[in-house]
Design a protein that fits this description.
352 residues; alpha/beta; five-stranded parallel beta sheet; 39% helix
């Protein structure tokens, strides 16, 4: 099966996904196989919360729309044009996917198939239905795709390379278990925002999107703020008030109450607006419903620290203060060429 044929399957999938929006689903009669899949996908989106309590319809729709925007002919061509796949000898690449946010492993799935390899997928129990549904759609568009995609519920076997995502603890297991295979092993990472106090109200509103999208469960969610000494947090709290309804979601509310209680019992000083706590802390990974912050006096020193700690950081959000920094509000809208952990997946797949 030629790469262009696979690419066209994903373009068709992008058109299919473009019909689904939290505000209103809009059926496009020109989209392939809507008679089989449109209503079924709406049902799956609304059933996803029963499979994973964090996958509310709003969050799943956001993930679906993100992929609809990514899977266009222009985007796929711009991404793939940087690589040469004509000499690739197809291999089977095992994927161990995370399940913290909807379709979080889909980029690896896409990368393996478009690079010319076959994929052997072990999904997370927290996100096992969405990617399988999209796979069925792809196979309906082109039945030959079935020869390139296998799912397994058991141990990965009969593969020649692996891409595995997990916690720092599971990463140590992965590194040992897959030591004889070409691999990408992804560990815990967090994202930070570097503020100067000159950000506009709109900047800070968009920063709220980086904090609260997917309830803060993704590695691209901002979990730490670097702020100048004597920073005034009032504009920040005023801006993120737009996200106040997050507290009405029970799982989030329970985490807010629990983590706030733990902090208070430990006599930590907190800033609090009744749906998010801010705690001064040097760590990058904050609990759900909390963001850590740290004061700085020397901006250049912070930039150097972020460079030194780059293996712990997924994204830096700022108004262009660091190389490759991400604009406010864009962390959960990565381009196809924005690779997790800054590891070029397609380059890896070229070389195995």
């Amino acid at each position: 099966m030629l790469q262009i044929e696979k690419k066209n399957c994903f373009i068709a999938l992008g058109r299919f996904l473009s019909q689904f929006n939290f505000d209103q689903n809009q059926k496009n009669e020109a989209v392939l196989h809507n008679d089989l899949y449109f209503d079924a996908f709406v049902d799956l989106i609304h059933a996803s919360q029963s499979h994973n309590g964090w996958f509310t319809p709003e969050q799943v729709y956001h993930a679906v729309q993100s992929w609809a925007k990514a899977l266009t002919e222009d985007n796929l061509n711009a991404w793939l044009s940087r690589y040469e796949f004509s000499t690739i000898q197809p291999k089977t690449v095992g994927l161990i996917l995370a399940g913290n946010i909807p379709l979080v492993g889909f980029h690896d799935f896409l990368s393996v198939l478009l690079s010319g390899h076959k994929v052997l997928v072990k999904t997370s129990s927290n996100d096992q239905y969405l990617i399988k549904f999209l796979t069925k759609y792809l196979i309906t568009v082109s039945p030959e795709m079935q020869n390139y995609i296998t799912f397994t519920d058991g141990k990965l076997e009969n593969f020649e390379a692996v891409i595995a995502t997990g916690s720092n603890n599971t990463a140590r297991y992965f590194e040992f278990y897959f030591k004889d295979k070409p691999s990408i092993i992804r560990k815990n990472r967090n994202s930070v925002a570097l503020l100067t106090g000159t950000e506009s109200h709109d900047d800070l509103v968009r920063l709220g999107e980086d904090i609260f999208r997917y309830f803060g469960l993704g590695c691209r969610n901002v979990s730490k703020l670097f702020v100048p000494k004597d920073y005034d947090f009032q504009p920040f709290f005023k801006a993120i008030y737009e996200y106040k309804d997050v507290i009405f979601y029970e799982k989030y509310s329970n985490n807010y109450d629990y983590n706030k209680a733990v902090f208070l019992m430990s006599n930590f000083k907190l800033l609090d607006n009744e749906f998010l706590t801010l705690k001064e802390d040097s760590s990058y990974a904050s609990p759900i419903a909390s963001v850590f912050y740290e004061y700085y006096e020397d901006l250049d020193a912070v930039k150097q620290r972020l460079e030194n700690d780059k293996d712990q950081i997924q994204c830096v959000v700022s108004n262009g203060l660091t190389p490759n920094s991400i604009p406010f509000g864009k962390t959960q809208q990565p381009e196809l060429w924005d690779y997790a952990d800054n590891v070029d997946t397609l380059q890896f797949l070229q070389q195995i």
